[in-house]
Amino acid sequence: MQDRRGVDGQSDDELSWQRLANCLGVDPDLFFPERGASTREAKEVCKGCVVRNECLDYALANGEKFGIWGGMSERERRRVRRARAGGQRDGAASA
Ligand code: SF4
């Protein structure tokens, strides 16, 4: 999403994936639906996006709390974050 990606200290290089985003030119509001509104259309755009993983990683790394990133809603990203945190704890425990 070219209109909503903050630069937040990120270098052009770190954000170069955005140039390949499927959502370039798509209305950013689609990715920030009102509470309870459908996320289907946004997720459809994300489905064929070649930088979906980069987008999701960016959102997770920057604690993006709102909107669809990497084809995932806030709730879905929270689940990923918890799973990754749990995996890290498990890994630390077994090390
Ligand atoms: S995954 Fe979705 S929100 Fe992220 S860059 Fe691609 S199309 Fe845009």
In short:
Helix content is 41%, strand content 0%. The chain is an all-alpha fold.
Topology:
Blueprint: H1 40-47, H2 52-61, H3 74-94
The chain binds iron/sulfur cluster (SF4).
Look at the structure and give the mean pLDDT: 87
Query: How many structural domains are formed by the residues?
Result: 1
Helix content, binned percent: 40-55%
Largest pleated sheet: none
Kindly name the structural category: mainly alpha
Q: Which distinct ligands sit in these coordinates? A: iron/sulfur cluster
The end-to-end distance, rounded to whole angstroms, is 39 Å
Give the DSSP E fraction (strand runs of 2 or more residues).
under 5%
Supply the number of helical segments: 3
Which consecutive residue ranges, at least 5 long each, have pLDDT under 50?
Answer: none
- Give the C-alpha Rg: 14 Å
Categorize the overall geometry. globular
Element string (H = helix, E = strand): HHH
- Report the strand count: 0
Describe the structure.
- The chain has helices spanning 40-47, 52-61, 74-94.
- The protein has three helices and no strands.
- With 95 residues, it is mainly alpha-helical.
- The chain has one domain.
- The longest helix is centred in the C-terminal third of the chain and has 21 residues, at 74-94.
- Residues 1, 21-23, 31, 45-46, 49, 51-52, 55, 68-71 line the site of iron/sulfur cluster.
Question: Characteristics of this structure?
Answer:
95 residues; mainly alpha; 3 helices; 0% strand; globular; binds iron/sulfur cluster
